[in-house]
Specification:
- The chain has about 55 residues and is mainly alpha-helical.
- Helix content is about 40%, strand content about 0%.
- The protein is elongated, with a radius of gyration of 16 Å.
């Protein structure tokens, strides 16, 4: 949940399809770029599920 006044970087799920929507709304002229902001630890339950594969 977002807190008012506190910006957070979007995750990949929020960016998926953004370029297509942006180009569609700007008639092909819109562009954007992403850059890494940092790293955060993976929650233990997510790590366990990934390692179990």
């Amino acid at each position: 949940m977002r807190r008012p006044g506190r910006a957070r970087p979007p995750d990949d799920r929020e960016l998926f399809g953004y370029a297509s929507r942006l180009r569609g709304r700007t008639r092909g002229r819109g562009a954007f770029a992403t850059r890494p902001v940092g790293y955060a630890p993976v929650p233990a339950q997510v790590a366990d599920a990934l390692l179990a594969r």
